[in-house]
Amino acid sequence: EKLVNGIEKLKEACEAYSKKLRNSEYRINFSDGEEIRFRFFDINLAHLLGVDYKSFYHESLKSISEKILDVDISKVNSYELLSRIILYIDDIAKHDSQYPNTQLLNYNQIKYKSTAFLHIYKKFLEFNFGCIDFDVNVYNTINNQSFKTNSTKLLFMPIDDNMKLFYVIGLKYDERINMYRPETIFYTENIS
Question: 167 forms bridges with which residues in the sheet?
Fold first, then answer.
C-alpha cells in the first residue's frame, strides 16, 4: 500500500509541478519592506519529492538503474532522471519488490515528501501560507534539536484547521542566481 501510495503521490506531484510551478518566479513582500524572489528549479525537484536520485548514480546500483531506466546514468541530470523514474515506475516497483536488498526507491519517504509537496502546492496557489525569517541556530537552541538546513526563510502552511502541525518549505538564498530556491520540505509542530 505504501508503495502504491508513494508512486501515485510522486506522479501527482510531478504533474502539479509541471503545470503550475515550473519556470515561474514568485515574490513575497515582508511587512518590514523586504522583498524576496524565489522559484522552484528542476534540479531540486527530485530531492523535494523524496527521491534519493543520487542512489541511482551509486556504483552498486548504477548498472541496475541503467538497465531499468534505459539510459546512461552519467549523461542525465536529476530532473531528467526523475522523468525517467516516472516513465519506468512500474519496472522500478517490480524490481524493488523482487530485490529488496537493491531497492532503488524509498516509498515511505516519497509518500511523505510528495504528500507534503502537494499540500504546499495547493496552499501556495491559494496564497494561504505564511513566510518568516529563519535562523537554524536559534531554532535548535529553543527546541533543543540538531536540525540541519541552510534555509533562511520558511514558507509554512497548516496541515489542518487545528493550526498545530505545519508543512514547511525551506528557502535558501542562492547568490549565483540572486534569488531564493526551495531547499527542503518538512513538517513541524510549531513555527517560532
Answer: 157, 187
Buried-state track 79-107, b at ≥16 Cβ within 10 A, e below 16: bebbbbbeebbeebbebbeeeeeeebbbb
Cα gap 51→27, rounded to integer Å:
27
pLDDT digit of tens for each residue in the chain (192 aa)? 556 788 999 999 999 999 989 988 988 888 888 899 999 999 999 999 999 989 999 998 999 999 999 999 999 999 999 999 999 999 999 999 999 899 999 999 999 999 999 988 888 777 777 787 777 777 767 777 766 778 888 888 888 777 677 888 889 999 999 999 999 888 776 555
**How many distinct helices (H) and strands (E) make up the chain?**
8, 6
Q: How many whole angstroms separate alpha carbon 5 and alpha carbon 27? A: 33
Helix (H, G, I), strand (E, B) or coil at 23: coil
Pick from 131, 138, 98: which is nearest to 26 by CA?
131
Nearest CA to 184 out of 175, 173, 171 is that of 171
Beta carbons within 10 angstroms of residue 179's beta carbon: 17
Cβ atoms of 91 and 75 within 8 Å: the answer is no
> What grid cell was written down for 135?
535562523
Find the distance separating the first CA and the last CA of the chain, reported in whole Å: 35
Q: How many angstroms separate the CA atoms of 73 and 171, rounded?
A: 29
Q: Answer yes or no: are the C-beta atoms of 167 and 122 closer than 8 Å.
A: no
